[in-house]
Amino acid sequence: MSESFQEQNAAVAEEPQQDAAYADADFEDLIEKNLNEVEMNPGSVVMGVVLSVDKDHVQLHVGLKSEALVPIAQFREDYPQGEIELSQGDNVKVVLECVDDGSGSTRVSRDQARRNEAWDEIERAHALDKPIEGRIMGEIKGGLTVSIKSVRAFLPGSLIDVRPLQDTGDLYGTIQEFKVIKLDRRRNNVVVSRREVLEEQNSSVREALLESLHEGQIIKGVVKNLTTYGAFVDLGGIDGLLHITDMSWKRVNDPSDVVTVGQEIDVRVLRYERERSRISLGLKQLQADPWEDISERYPAGTRLPAKVTNVTDYGCFAEIENGVEGLVHVSEMSWTQRSPNPAQLVQSGQDVEVMVLEVNPDNRRISLGMKQCMQNPWEVFEKKQKVGDEVSGKIRSITDFGIFVELAEGMNGLVHRDDISWEQSGSEAVKSYSRDQDIKAVVIGIDVKRERISLSIRELEGNPMRDYLQANPKGTVVTGSVLRSGNRLTLRLAQYVEGSIDSSQIVSEPGQEMSEAFPVGAEVEAMVLGTDKNNRRIQLSMLALLGDAEREQAMKSVEGDEQAASTVGELIQREIDSKSGEAKD
Predict the structure, then answer these.
(1) Is residue 560 left, alpha or beta, with left meaning phi > 0 and alpha meaning psi from -120 to 50?
(2) Residue 89 falls in which region: left (phi positive, over 0), alpha (psi -120 to 50) or beta
(3) Pairing of strands 278-282, 239-243
């Protein structure tokens, strides 16, 4: 051996990390002392002495004729925190794979030696029932993989924690302690449990905590895991559930919007089931309840700004203050759209103005309206138009019962089929009109509450019934010809004007058939009582023409309930005595 090598060996021997037994030995003696007694068979664990280190290999002397070259990558796991620090003279355990690979070289493995060391440590931990450290690498079917000093172990999903975890991503890459519950070195099979370690760690703290817990208590905890329905909070040995509905007084769509894993928070114990060790926690309960005195702060009729928080098929929810939401039902969103799509009117996050319609503090519900903060187009129409005014519009639809005419955007009036023509029947008259046709009509009724406007096309030519009543007010005796007879008589009083006599108001001979007593075309005299708006006829009475004695006798002869007849007679008498000339509503 050269002098320079002797000097280098002496320098290596003087390094503090070298074993004291080799401090005064030269390099050759050190090699001989370390290796002479080693069994040199393939598979044996031998101690190699580092001869040199370069960027690709580490050269080792293991006591054989030839040195071994080991890829430097096999040493990287020995130095996970930085660069490989190997120096000439360092001792390294390796496994002898081949004494002579055919080319005169010795082949050894640091990886295999490390695995052997790991297996030895794992077996000791299993035999002594002691925890061992490992790094959680990632997810596989049924659980997670764990690296224990180069040995791959399996961590079943049920043994990850003391409770099921919805998300294990926060554990990836972390070093944890595990109990070895099953191993087979020959098959390279190791099963570990993290739950057993946690249960042991938590048992004493858990018992003390369970004894001191009570409902209403405020306690500190650390957010351990998030789920779709809330968060699990570690209270110090035992976990409690902070449900999403107890995180905030306002709507929470995602627990991560309120808390984060690792965050320390104060929570209130809401429910504690000692037998099942189940704890329900609350975060919002540490804040003032915004629903207290809600009726006084927001009485019905209050207008205020709000922010849309959620849009549904039946309306939208709007927040009027932090933690207080109300429902704007679809029917309260627009004056003119009967069944609008809420998503076409508002979007989440939009600022809107609402009116409080109803407050139910017991059920924590507030009914809101949007349309109430806008002008009611029906009220606007009523102020601008009155019954008898002529209006124009475009036909939007034609139905079996009439024609809908658009008078303003989203606001339609109805021309009932009986109000289309004086001469034609409604079913015939409606055939003369088509969708999108521009027409004129007369307003004959405005009902703001029911959002209805009644129109008439035929009254553009005048109103024969109104003209007839002006000439023949209530109490006037008139004559008409019979058009139809049956349970009642229908009379033609003038062109386009009909009158109706109810059976209780008809005077005829006892037992005589109606058609026989009043044939079609016969002239009948009767008194005007009022109008039947639904059937657009003038109400008449023959009974009202009789004197008191005659009327009493006729009423007795009418078939039916005498009390009903008496009531009708009283009605007739009141109407006859009335001095008002107005038609009956």
Answers:
(1) left
(2) left
(3) parallel
Is residue 320 helix, strand or coil? strand
Task: Assess contact for 407 and 381: CB atoms under 8 A.
Answer: yes
User: pLDDT tens for residues 196-225?
Assistant: 888 887 777 777 777 888 888 999 999 988
CA pair distance 547, 399, nearest whole angstrom? 49
SS (HEC) of 146-210: EEECCEEEEEEHHHCCCCCCCCCHHHCCCEEEEEEEEEECCCCEEEEECHHHHHHHHHHHHHHHH
* Distance between first and last Cα of the chain: 132
In terms of Cα–Cα distance, which of 89, 101, 82 is closest to 23?
A: 89
**Residue range 14-22: mean pLDDT, rounded:** 40
Which tokens belong to 235? 């209270």
pTM of the model: 0.44
Burial readout 71-94 (b: 16 or more C-beta within 10 A, e: otherwise): ebebbeeeeeeeeeebebbbebeb
Structure-block tokens of residue 53: 């280190």
pLDDT of 40 > 70? The answer is no
Instruction: Count CB atoms within 10 A of the CB of residue 120.
Output: 13
From residue 149, alpha-carbon distances to 2, 111, 121, 123 in Å are 40, 10, 9, 13
The 3-state DSSP class for residue 324 equals strand
Question: In this structure, what token pair is assigned to residue 27?
Answer: 């390099």
How far apart CA 101 and CA 68 sit, in angstroms, is 11
Q: Is the pLDDT of residue 423 over 90?
A: no
> Which position has the higher pLDDT, 369 or 237?
369
- For residue 130, give Cα distances in angstroms to 109, 115, 126, 201, 237: 29, 19, 7, 13, 20
Task: Check if the beta carbon of residue 60 is closer than 8 Å to that of residue 109.
Answer: no
Q: Can you give the pLDDT at residue 106?
A: 76
Average pLDDT over every residue of 160-187:
87
Q: pLDDT for 138-170, tens place per residue?
A: 899 999 999 998 789 999 998 998 777 778 888
Q: How far apart are CA 547 and CA 540, in angstroms?
A: 17
Confidence grade of residue 86 (pLDDT, cut at 50, 70, 90): confident
359: nearest Cα among 408, 295, 419: 295
Q: Looking at the DSSP assignment, which residues form a beta bridge with residue 453?
A: 446
> Which residue is associated with the tokens 């008139």?
478
For 334-397, the DSSP string reads: -SS-SS--HHHH--TT-EEEEEEEEEETTTTEEEEESGGGS--HHHHHHHH--TT-EEEEEEEE
- At 391, list the tokens: 């209006």
User: Quick count: other Cβ atoms within 10 Å of Cβ 279?
Assistant: 25
Q: Which two tokens stand for residue 319?
A: 């927040």
